[in-house]
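ok so heres the complex, two chains, lmk if somethin looks off
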Amino acid sequence: MSDNLTYLGMEDQYKKYELFFGPNHPGMNGNFSYILTVEGHTIVKAEPVPGLLHRGFEKLVEQRLWLQNISLILRICVPEPDINELVYSRIIEKLMGVEIPERAKFIRTIVLEMSRIGAFLLGFGGIGGTTGLYTAPNWTIADRDYLLDLWEWISGARVYHMFILPGGVRRDLPEGWIEKLQKTIAYLEKRLPEYDRLIYNNPLIVKRVTGLAPITQEDAIKYGITGPNLRATGVKFDARKNVPYAAYPYLDFDIPTQTGGDGFARVIQRREEFEISLNLVKQAIKLMPKGEVRAPMPNALKFRVPKGERYVRVESARGEHGFYIVSDGTEKPYRMAVRGGSYTAGLIYAKKALEGMRIEDVALWMATMDICAPDFDR
Amino acid sequence: MNYKDKSKLAPLSALKYLFKDPITIRYPQEEKEGYPGGFKGVSPKYRGMHSNDLEKCIGCGSCSEICPTDAIRMVEAEDVEEKFGATKERPVIDYGRCCFCAFCVEVCTTGSLNMTRDYIHDYVSPIDKTGKDLSETISEEFIRRPDYKHEENLGWNTPDEYSWLELERVKMEELKPSERDHSFIEIVKGFSKEQATKEAQRCVSCGLCTEVCPAHMDIPEYIQSIFDADLEEGLRQLYKTNPLPEICGRICTHKCETACSIAHRGEALSIRWLKRYIADSVPLDSYKKYLGINYIKQIDKKIAIVGAGPAGLSAAYYLSLLGYKTTIFEALPKPGGMMRYGIPEYRLPYDQIDKDINFIESLGVEIKCNTRVGKDITLDELHKTHDVVYIATGLHLGRSTRIPGSDHKNVYYSTDLLREVSLGNEIPVEKKIVIIGGGNVAMDITRTLARLQNIKYGKVDITTTSLESEDIMPADREEIVEAREEGATIDPGWGPKEIEIKNGKVVGLHVVKCLSVFDEDHRFSPKFDESQKKFFAADMVVQSIGQAMDLSYISEDIKSKLTFGPRGRIKVNENFQTDLDWLFVGGDIIQGPDAIHGIANGHTTAKAIDDMLNKNK
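and the predicted structre for the whole thing:
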């Protein structure tokens, strides 16, 4: 008997086994999963299994009126829904040749940066969550609530704002809102040193993330990795700077970069961009002009977009977020495709990155890469 | 900063938060102070449960149309009152589907639908804190018709400037007063393709207009066809219920626009001008092709129609489509009735009347002009030679004010003068004219005479006075404004007392202040303040206070077999059939002066005649 077992252990085919890393693991988001082939604690092969979360999503968009879709497309990303509204609205505006009012551009910028801050906060929590430091998510989710209060005040809803519309934004800012926003930003700035003490100066976390799955610049470019992950490798590219939109051309900011592209570089990159975002909100508040917030738009029930196609991208907290939409000149989009911020990172690059990694690092790797399954799982 | 400056004890600083209050609410509907203005709990503009003002709501269904999750259904409500320009349907919301986007509020045409700060949450709150068991409320409120329940706690609403509807009309181009006051050129220029498409885009296709249109025209459908740039379809939609689109597109009384749902917040759609756009854009020689009229199988039945006005022409069109041999007998030299002889050319050019009528004639309808029934041919003769006779002779007699001096030869009726102008005859135009009347006909004669005065004397001196004060004058607002632009003085709110005659000549009109026109029961019973007097000097007075019918051509023998109702109107059934099987009566003489009513009952009559003759077969 024991001879038999020894014999089996020596056979190569029994050395490896398959491990399902999906919704059964708290570090995974959505219904996405990786099937890992593991030898001991080390992953030898990783196979992503997409298609169970937002299946048919893009098809659904084709069956709704242009404006009805505003309530649908933002569901692609819960932490940061506003980028979807912006991309969608900008495509429509470009196809229709509409110029939006200046004030609307600034309000959009403020809202986008707020949502980026919110997404980063959840990201910080993710680092804590995957390393067992549950104080971090408790803090960041609570602090994000202050931002949700602000959204609730301008848009009537906390998570799905549906605030950015083709032509501008849905409402002007209510009285007292800017003051509350300034207070919130000041509060978050005050909290930063505490986050540093809790997360970024925490020797445990630093040790776990340092050297974790480093990305080389060549790989980052080859695999189409964007956003903070790309910048962590030292490439200075940011859609806000390189293909400016909303009020970003008016704002003064410099995007930081890191070197090495390992887990630590990626985490610190986000931590530094968080500070930039706080600063951008403050600048936008100062420069915001008075005036209209929405350009005149056609009746929502007879809303037609001229024939044409467009790809528009913005910088999300996870990278380049873009929609490709084809209009055939009718009341509904003809075709739509989504390119989420972590599209290549979570789907294609994962195959390469996960190879040779230890099982316990998979969830942490996802957190440091800020991989969000709804970005690509459809 | 140096992130590697790490300390094992640093994370312990978090312990100081252990005894702080939580930021978030601990259970649903916990009332936490959060927003300025004393708002507790959720934000002042929260998107929670719906609230609908059932009285204000018109049941247009736009909310249901825009709903992205198909959560809103329009359901007929028993407990709401019927009112003009509204259905009895009200929205019912399925909260299992609702995503609280508030798009329904953004497109609400009346502003009756709002969202409130009340919300339910699928989570049981501590009863000792909220005083209610939410789980029960949830089951009660899952599918419900929003009403006044949460009215006290309104949240998200849509002011006009944020509405997703287009509230402003596309401006119709018109001739300037200086360009039009010397001639009878048509004032309204009509829409271009871009303008018409833009205007059509404003429509929410609620269909409330169809409901109130006497002819029940398929208005949303033909507006959609303009939006789709499919005028072929548009023309088909028009001719389904109205064979006089060129005419109606210019002079219809447009009840549809009064009922338009957009008018609750903004300006009603220019439905009339859109109809005109379709008719104007399609050339006459394409009509048959577009309408698919190739061959009509003839039926061996003959129908005589007396009067080539809207009712007669409409009946003739539909009867001839069915294959009946139809002949119209018209007393005046040209067909069109009041549309030609009552409406001035600057509102309705004669060539446009001809376009509509020529098409009807092209289907085989025979129009015998200059043939006055009762003089050139009798009704009995028509009865003998035709299976059915349809009378639609209209209101061509003027009504008199019966005040002293109104029988003077320089006191005229507007109907007579307008007819003479259309016939091309010269009419008396004095230097100073007073017109009595506040309706659209009074405005027509005012503006016609103003033009003639301009041509003859180079200046306008016309005063138009009516019993009704300006806010209740029956004339269209734009008619009053345009009449003033053309130099006429409109001085409403006076009751005519006497036309002063000196040395056999009209000198002017004495009036007294009119305090009210109708009594509490809305009956005509004017009250005057005799102490407030005024005198309008004039060489000529025109009375334009209404029209009357002339039924003298009906022989006593036939009259004795008919029943007459109030104001001398012949009694007819719902199909406009009189007590005599072979005799139908319609148009203004049954329903009062209005072209679209005439068109509508011409259509109804045609169907009724067809039914009757088919039955007799």
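quick notes: Chain A has 15 helices and eight strands. thats all i got rn
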